[in-house]
Amino acid sequence: MCSSSSKCCELILADTYIYISPQFYQQEASKLRRQIRDVQNMNRHILGEALSSLSFKELKNLEGRLEKGISRIRSKKNELLFAEIEFMQKREVELQNDNMYLRAKIAENERAQQQQQQQSNMIQGSVYQTVTSQPYNRNFLPVNLLEPNNEYSTQDQTPLQLV
């Protein structure tokens, strides 16, 4: 039991007395304060601050630790980058496969529509020309759109003048 006037503390646990001196706690607190100060100084040094207090050997040691840390960081970054590239390549293959499947389905539907149109034309007794569908390709512009339009001649137009 601890009293406010006593300079020591006793702890009673199952009929066992443990004497804990206040000096022990003071020593522990001082050790912890020193560790906190050391960690804070180390963080400052890693950030490149408060380097004037370091010797050449300490600076060299710090530089080596920083280079090892940077090496590990770059290694991990490259590992993640390569994993992302691999994932994207797999995704690209999946999308290409999906695209081919969808193009095949479109072509199949167009053939079915053509056959259905031909059958309905035969049933009606009319002879129509069947229009063959162009392959669906929205990624390309027709060639004639890229050529200049010669229908409108600029020679017949009078120039405008500002007065």
TrEMBL record:
- Superkingdom of the source species: Eukaryota
Q: Which residues form a coiled coil?
A: 59-117
Q: Which UniProt keywords apply?
A: Coiled coil
Q: Where is the K-box domain?
A: 22-112
Q: Which GO terms describe its cellular component?
A: nucleus
Among the GO molecular function terms of this UniProt record, one is:
DNA-binding transcription factor activity
Instruction: Determine if Coiled coil is one of this entry's keywords.
Output: yes
Protein name per its UniProtKB record = Transcription factor, K-box
